Amino acid sequence: LSKVTLPEDIILGYACFSGCDSWKNIVLPQNTFCEDAALPGNIDSLQISNSIFGEGVITGKVNRILLSPKQNTVFDMGGSWVSVKLKELYSSKQVTKLLFNGVDGENAVEKLYVNGRDTKVEANESRGHAVLGKVSFGEIFTVENAKAISFAKKHKITYHIKKAGKVKKAGSVLSPMPHCQKFHISSEFSSV
Description:
Blueprint: E1 11-12, E2 25-28, E3 33-34, E4 43-48, E5 58-67, E6 74-76, E7 81-91, E8 97-100, E9 104-114, E10 120-123, E11 132-143, H1 147-154, E12 158-162, E13 189-191
Parallel strand pairs: 1-3, 2-4, 4-5, 5-7, 6-8, 7-9, 8-10, 9-11, 11-12
Antiparallel strand pairs: 12-13
């Protein structure tokens, strides 16, 4: 099984795709509910349009997650993550909150791209529940005056700001996901 087209408004049952390791590029449509361990481990790209519910849905190595909201603008990544090693997470400017609370195990996001000035990022907060794991962040790429900058400063995370008017055609560009083409790794970001 290497390609699946899913309809909107479905439930992916317990461990239904957990052994499908050749399904690498996954698009979860609007209102997809995932029960425990519903997705395979080691995903190349995952596009979601609302929070993934269920525990232990995302595990292992993931190259890229793209958040492309249709209605819900709050993405709770917490309980669905178990020992995830994520290279890149792209958040469009429509996303208002990125929550990484309640994860299980040691999780890491190498590069977090926050395209929204008003996107609030929250991680590793207990909110009255036991903390079973944590998420660490390598670098955050965002826009000027973004709320994500406060998060980066508070947690001592290296961040980069996209400067308006200084965008140059990138020679070495990541292949961006749809809706996130504003983010390129090049001289358009200044390190802070």
